[in-house]
Design a protein that fits this description.
mainly beta; 2 helices; binds beta-D-mannopyranose; Tachylectin-2, Chain A
Length: about 300
């Protein structure tokens, strides 16, 4: 029997996972939560790798088509061992998210160190050499994504400070990418829904004709632990604290064995997407914190899901 399950809005690539442990050219524990850029005809994917010793760092994979990737033989960014960054990164660097602004690649990533989680910023021209620019959040903040354009003359980002034990998505602004403020709540967990426990930005905001499309992750807590799903929200172009519409249903939920079983089961967790000229999207995601997968869909279908009314 041909099985046709259109439960999820995005379609899984048949060759998933696209990068798993067996594809890694060096010894490591897991590879997940990759962030893509398309440069000319080439797709580059910055990967989060967890080493066997237990902390994370970044490696690079390349592909001619966005599906078949080759991982470079050496990691491209390791936690600093000495100097001013060392104590902040001693437990690893995690979840890179790349945004191109005026021809430069900026990476927001989570640093984990003596004082917990913070968001850090680095820039790179080639995804091989990274210049650390600063720690740009207070403690207990992660899931930082930069907007690709300034908004009202300021750089803008979404992030996820943990306040009062609740994880919501906030927006902040900066004149120089280093000093941030004017922070406001954008989106909170939604009681009763699949994103009732905690939410955070996932994909750097995508510019669409209706406003900013943010693909985020939402967590529901269950008696056997959290379930991480992916959803979407449409934000006002001039004031992203204004929500135009939020998808009632997830774009993707953990269903396949490779999403259900791994170091952290029941997780689909995106850190980036490529939008092609024809409006097709390739969303890259970590599956069960153990492998990298890709799913595809149409931007217009995601926008429709954001604008659908609750009946
Ligand atoms: C989040 C982040 C992700 C991870 C996810 C599921 O809080 O730490 O890196 O993929 O949890 O474990």
């Amino acid at each position: 029997m041909v099985k046709k399950n259109k439960t999820d809005l995005l379609d899984r690539y048949k060759g998933n996972p696209i990068i798993e442990l067996e594809d890694m050219p060096f010894r490591c524990n897991t590879v997940f939560n990759g962030s893509p850029v398309k440069r000319g005809d080439e797709y580059l994917l910055l990967l989060r790798v967890e080493g066997l010793q237990g902390y994370s760092f970044f490696a690079l994979a390349r592909s001619p088509d966005g599906f078949n990737f080759e991982v470079e033989p050496e990691p491209v960014m390791l936690p600093a061992k000495e100097g001013q960054w060392a104590r902040w990164e001693s437990h690893g660097i995690e979840d890179p998210r790349i945004t191109e602004i005026e021809g430069k690649y900026y990476v927001l990533y989570t640093i984990v160190g003596d004082y917990g989680h913070f968001i850090a910023l680095a820039e790179t021209d080639d995804m091989r050499e990274f210049r650390r620019l600063g720690i740009i959040s207070g403690p207990g903040n992660k899931d930082g994504v930069l907007f690709p354009n300034k908004i009202n003359g300021l750089y803008a980002r979404l992030d996820r400070p943990i306040g009062n034990d609740v994880g919501s998505i906030w927006v902040s602004y900066s004149p120089d990418l280093i000093n941030w403020g004017l922070s406001e709540v954008v989106l909170e967990p939604r009681p009763r829904y699949w994103d009732s426990f905690r939410i955070g930005a996932s994909v750097p905001p995508l510019s669409t004709k209706f406003g900013w499309l943010e693909i985020y992750h939402g967590v529901k807590m269950t008696s056997s632990g959290p379930i991480y799903k992916t959803g979407a929200v449409l934000l006002d172009r001039e004031d992203p604290a204004i929500v135009i519409g939020r998808s009632l249903i997830p774009l993707l939920s953990p269903r396949k064995d490779y999403e259900r079983i791994g170091d952290v089961g029941n997780v689909v967790f995106a850190c980036g997407a490529v939008v092609e000229e024809n409006g097709d999207i390739k969303m890259y995601y970590g599956a069960a914190d153990t492998a990298i997968c890709v799913s595809t869909g149409k931007i217009n279908d995601i926008l429709s899901a954001c604008l659908e009314e609750d009946k």
